[in-house]
Design goal:
Helix 7 runs antiparallel to helix 8, helix 8 runs antiparallel to helix 14 and helix 13 packs antiparallel against helix 14. The protein contains 16 helices and three strands. 44% of the residues are buried. It is an all-alpha fold. It starts with a helix and ends with a helix. Strand 1 and strand 2 form a beta hairpin. It has a three-stranded antiparallel sheet, covered by helices on one side.
Length: 385
């Protein structure tokens, strides 16, 4: 190795260390604590063993944490230039699901990459925010108000949503739509456009109903009246409500949940893990987890607002909005406020791609924080990059 290459490596290491020290350690601590809550809950679900869920989840968190640090220290100008490329890769992966995807739990959502299975729809949640932030950063406020400038970003949303619906995965499709709507709103799209879109969606409901899968129709009917089939379609949500109520104020104690350990609760390690936590730690424990989420959201919003660039603000707020929708829909789902759509609880539910994707998203927020004073080029200047 030459002296020059050694010097370059030393500079890279020094830059990495300097930027790691510049991270928002308050947000980092909240992320670690929330992940520990998830590991403890999975430990209880496993009956007091680390072999079933905990060890694999801990390994995934370690990988995601490293990627979060790596993403955070990379110059935000790189993410600006690479945004459309990352979106394109995520789109290709979604198409690959249609061609070579593996089937699990009645849906074709994963791509087998050998050592692990990747769920491209989770990757698209971050890729779409990146691409929309790049697009709206490159146009003026006057152009945002014109419909012709909204055709391209609308197609950027419609194409992946259509592909996700074909898997079928209604929950993730809704998350993509809501996340995109947040980005359009933050970019300054006129409110009457949202109103027109909402009216169109409401008018399309009778037609869309006929295109839903049988199980999706059943979920909506069960949401409206869970007692119509208490031992069938309504069983999951009714047992979830029973477990939530049985926890009381302080819960039954760690490893003492009866509804969960007697296998009354469905999908305890993924979709209904919040119910498990609430049964063992009660209302106090559930509010404690909610407080962690709210503090993380507040940190993310504050970081986004401090950015001097439009790209940084949109990227930070977009990921914060996606994170909020994640935990809001999961908790609303298990409490019966919205239909069951299969959305994991961020940093808590068992799952590889979802865990890593969320941590990468927070890595981008950290990048916005570290490079909050960096001036980013607009459209005319980007064309020269």
């Amino acid at each position: 190795m030459t002296v020059r290459s050694q010097s370059s490596l030393s500079e890279i290491r020094l830059t990495f260390i300097q930027r790691v020290w510049q991270l928002n350690w308050g947000l980092m601590l909240l992320i670690i604590v929330t992940a520990c809550v998830g590991l403890a809950t999975l430990y209880s679900i496993s009956g007091g063993t680390t072999e079933t869920w905990v060890s694999r989840q801990l390994m995934r968190f370690g990988v995601g944490f490293f990627l979060m640090l790596l993403v955070a220290v990379i110059d935000i100008r790189f993410w600006l230039r690479a945004a459309f490329l990352i979106y394109g890769v995520a789109l290709v992966l979604l198409v690959a699901v249609e061609v070579v995807g593996t089937v699990g739990m009645g849906a074709q959502r994963w791509v087998d990459l050998g050592p692990f299975q990747l769920q491209p729809s989770e990757v698209m949640k971050i890729a779409l925010v990146l691409a929309l932030a790049r697009y709206f950063h490159g146009i003026t406020h006057e152009e945002v108000a014109q419909l012709r400038w909204l055709v391209v970003p609308s197609l950027m949303v419609i194409i992946p949503v259509t592909l996700v619906l074909r898997q079928p995965d209604l929950g993730t499709a809704l998350l993509l739509l809501i996340g995109a709507a947040v980005m359009f709103f933050l970019a300054g799209v006129r409110l009457w456009i949202f109103g027109a879109g909402l009216m169109t969606a409401l008018a399309a409901i009778p037609f869309a109903w006929h295109y839903l899968h049988d199980y999706q129709r059943e979920r909506i009917l069960t949401f409206l009246n869970p007692e119509r089939d208490p031992l069938g379609a309504g069983y999951h949500i009714l047992q979830s409500k029973i477990a939530l109520g049985s926890g009381g104020m302080f819960g039954k104690g760690f490893l003492q949940g009866t509804q969960s350990h007697l296998n009354f609760l469905p999908e305890m390690q993924t979709d209904f893990i919040f119910t498990m936590l609430a049964e063992e730690f009660g209302l106090v424990g559930a509010l404690g987890l909610l407080a962690l989420y709210v503090f993380m959201l507040a940190y993310a919003i504050a970081i986004a607002l401090r950015s001097r660039s439009q790209f940084g603000r949109l990227l930070g707020m977009g990921i914060a909005g996606t994170f909020f929708v994640y935990f809001f829909i999961n908790i609303a789902m298990v409490t019966g406020l919205v239909p069951v759509v299969g959305v994991p609880l961020p940093l808590v539910s068992y799952g590889g791609t979802a865990m890593v994707t969320i941590l990468v998203g927070f890595g981008l927020i950290m990048s916005v924080y570290i490079h909050r004073d960096v001036r980013l080029p607009r459209r005319a200047e980007m064309e020269e990059l």
